[in-house]
Design brief:
Length: 278
């Protein structure tokens, strides 16, 4: 059996940077991450063992007397940053620079009087964070249907994207707004890491008998990778760790492909690869 592992599988630049920042703080007492540092239960559990606790948006910061709070790669909204900075706790910002760049864009576009449309999943922390830096006239659109149904009275709109959004779907959504006759400024803020990973996954999935996509079940970029691979290869599996995979189901196949979302540690990918070959 030939096992092809995507070169772009696993941690991207921003996640690697954020995870390293947390690990480099584990020698301190009272370390917290603002939300799970990444969407991977294994990594979060390992950090918990090292004394790093997760606090949530609704955590009362007054009950935390001292410590360091690390803001995850997905970032946080302007008000959330203010609340953290006013808490007296030490703040380490591990927001991915590609995400911070979108904060600047939506701030500028809003200040210029344009309505902002964020193409992405409204429930995702990254999108909530971006919305938190944007002006009052901001909408989140997550699907073709939502784009069709949204009619805005403003003429000038600027469209940005969640970094992990599917490029093809983003272009389709932009086209819908173009057809509605708005004065559009399209700012494709899809992260290159995501695009490259998606293209490689598509290419591998179209050439294998089965495709394994590894990543947290709440990870939106892994869900998208799964969708893309499933389109190309009906035998596509979505697993979090090697334990979730029934390796008997791929026995006898000739070519297996493996890719993984941005939050998947290398050691999980390697374990899945090894177990495919046993
Ligand atoms: S996918 Fe891109 S934007 Fe998101 S954390 Fe990774 S490098 Fe940053």
């Amino acid at each position: 059996m030939e096992v092809i592992v995507a070169k772009t599988a696993g941690f991207c630049f921003g996640v690697k940077r954020a995870v390293e920042k947390v690990y480099s703080n584990t020698d301190k007492e009272h370390v917290y991450t603002y939300g799970p540092i990444i969407h991977n239960e294994e990594v979060v559990a390992d950090l918990e063992k090292k004394g790093v606790h997760v606090i949530e948006e609704d955590t009362d910061l007054d009950i935390i007397e001292k410590g360091t709070v690390i803001v995850r790669a997905h970032g946080a909204g302007r008000e959330e940053f203010e609340r953290l900075r006013n808490s007296g706790l030490e703040i380490e910002d591990a927001t991915c620079p590609f995400v911070s760049k979108i904060y600047r864009i939506v701030e500028e576009e809003s200040a210029a009087g344009r309505t902002v449309i964020i193409v992405g999943n409204a429930a995702h922390p990254e999108v909530k964070g971006i919305k938190g830096w944007s002006g009052e006239h901001t909408y989140v659109v997550g699907s073709i249907e939502e784009a069709n149904n949204l009619n805005i009275s403003a003429k000038k709109i600027s469209i940005v994207s969640q970094t992990t959004f599917n490029l093809k779907k983003f272009q389709e959504i932009v086209e819908i707004f173009e057809k509605k006759g708005y004065d559009i400024k399209c700012l494709n803020t899809i992260c290159n890491a995501t695009e490259v990973r998606q293209n490689e996954a598509r290419q591998i999935a179209s050439n294998v008998d089965a495709m394994i996509v590894i990543g947290g079940k709440n990870s939106s970029n892994t869900q998208k990778l799964f969708e893309i691979c499933k389109e190309e290869c009906s035998n596509t599996y979505y697993i979090q760790t090697a334990e979730d995979m029934d390796f008997n189901s791929i026995r006898g196949m000739q070519r297996i492909g493996i890719t993984a979302g941005a939050s998947t540690p290398k050691k999980i990918i390697e374990e899945v690869q090894t177990r495919c070959q046993i």
